[in-house]
UniProtKB/TrEMBL annotation:
<dbReference type="InterPro" id="IPR032466">
    <property type="entry name" value="Metal_Hydrolase"/>
</dbReference>
<keyword id="KW-0479">Metal-binding</keyword>
<dbReference type="Pfam" id="PF02126">
    <property type="entry name" value="PTE"/>
</dbReference>
<dbReference type="InterPro" id="IPR001559">
    <property type="entry name" value="Phosphotriesterase"/>
</dbReference>
<dbReference type="GO" id="GO:0016787">
    <property type="term" value="F:hydrolase activity"/>
</dbReference>
<protein>
    <submittedName>
        <fullName>Phosphotriesterase</fullName>
    </submittedName>
</protein>
<feature type="binding site">
    <location>
        <position position="190"/>
    </location>
    <ligand>
        <name>Zn(2+) 2</name>
    </ligand>
</feature>
<feature type="binding site">
    <location>
        <position position="23"/>
    </location>
    <ligand>
        <name>Zn(2+) 1</name>
    </ligand>
</feature>
<comment type="similarity">
    <text>Belongs to the metallo-dependent hydrolases superfamily. Phosphotriesterase family.</text>
</comment>
<keyword id="KW-0378">Hydrolase</keyword>
<feature type="binding site">
    <location>
        <position position="161"/>
    </location>
    <ligand>
        <name>Zn(2+) 2</name>
    </ligand>
</feature>
<feature type="modified residue" description="N6-carboxylysine">
    <location>
        <position position="128"/>
    </location>
</feature>
<dbReference type="GO" id="GO:0008270">
    <property type="term" value="F:zinc ion binding"/>
</dbReference>
<feature type="binding site">
    <location>
        <position position="247"/>
    </location>
    <ligand>
        <name>Zn(2+) 1</name>
    </ligand>
</feature>
<feature type="binding site">
    <location>
        <position position="25"/>
    </location>
    <ligand>
        <name>Zn(2+) 1</name>
    </ligand>
</feature>
<feature type="binding site" description="via carbamate group">
    <location>
        <position position="128"/>
    </location>
    <ligand>
        <name>Zn(2+) 2</name>
    </ligand>
</feature>
<feature type="binding site" description="via carbamate group">
    <location>
        <position position="128"/>
    </location>
    <ligand>
        <name>Zn(2+) 1</name>
    </ligand>
</feature>
Length: 295
């Protein structure tokens, strides 16, 4: 594969990414999750080291602006472990911020996103935004408009937190319809949390990438439905649109596991047994390169 991915250590050829955890968090904090911060370097570095030991090559961190990205620590962990890390700019739902932060930033989001993607000391490689539950509120529409503007200026992909997996088609109507973001530049997250295969198939037909994530005690309900959903997508010819990630968002989830290494040691062999080596390589190696790369 040609093309490059922008990591926290610079541009990396897509072919060098290896096995990718397509949605995770090394660091994260939110007033909506008090006491559950991911804010320490040693545990984050240990997660990356275990991922590397299991055979992983790259992690895409979806933590957006104002939620404790700790980019200097991300750089340190990437250097220490040899795992490539892609960082995010963007903005989450309003509940994850203090009002003063939103007051300072909402009027210049596109400018800030573009800075993070082009001139910041540690540059982001994607734009993270979020929908609401079964719909798009004014905050979501505003942040997505800014994300689309930043995409058009930089070509960066737009990754979307779907609240409880809902609202995928509304998001696509806005981002790819009204705002003109090409659907292959959109990654829809958390689809497994609303296992509506008809919606998933429609989203895949649009050309967007579909991220299934969250194998943890906190999101256990997604685990046992995962392979039924993957089967429907693979059988419909959409293996090239599937991404898998861990999405560890809290200290409790990190303690409980299983962590990013589980993707390599457990899920990847299961995908290969179920669908064959070509599909496993697509899901864990080729699709992330196409979703987050620049061509």
């Amino acid at each position: 594969m040609s093309g490059t991915v922008r990591t926290v250590l610079g541009e990396v050829p897509v072919a060098r990414l290896g096995v990718v955890d397509a949605h995770d968090h090394l660091f994260l904090r939110s007033p909506a999750l008090p006491g559950e911060e991911l804010a320490e370097l040693p545990p984050a570095q240990a997660e990356l080291a275990a991922f590397r030991e299991a055979g992983g090559g790259a992690v895409v961190q979806w933590t957006p602006r104002g939620m404790g990205r700790r980019l200097a620590d991300v750089v340190a962990a990437s250097r220490a472990t040899g795992v490539h890390v892609v960082a995010a700019t963007g903005l989450h739902q309003a509940v994850h911020y203090e009002p003063a932060f939103l007051e300072r930033t909402m009027g210049r989001l596109a400018e800030l996103f573009v800075q993070d993607l082009t001139t910041a000391p540690v540059r982001a490689g994607l734009i993270k935004v979020a929908s609401g539950f079964h719909g798009l509120d004014a905050h979501a529409r505003h942040t997505m408009a800014a994300a689309a503007e930043a995409h058009h200026a930089t070509g960066a992909p737009v990754a979307v937190h779907l609240e409880l997996g809902t609202g995928a088609l509304d998001v696509l109507d806005l981002l790819c319809g009204a705002l003109g973001v090409p659907s292959p530049s959109v990654v829809l997250g958390h689809l497994g949390r609303s296992p509506d295969i008809r919606v998933q198939l429609a989203a895949a037909r649009s050309g967007a990438f579909l991220a299934f994530d969250g194998p943890s005690r906190r999101h256990h309900a997604t685990d046992w439905r995962l392979f039924d959903q993957l089967t429907a997508l693979v059988e419909a010819g959409h293996a090239g649109k599937i991404l898998l990630g861990g999405d560890t968002t809290t200290a409790g989830a990190r303690r409980e596991g299983p962590g990013p290494a589980f993707l390599v040691g457990d899920l990847m062999p299961r995908v290969e047994r179920e669908f064959g080596a070509d599909v496993a390589r697509a899901v864990f190696v080729e699709n992330p390169g196409r979703a987050f790369g620049r061509w």
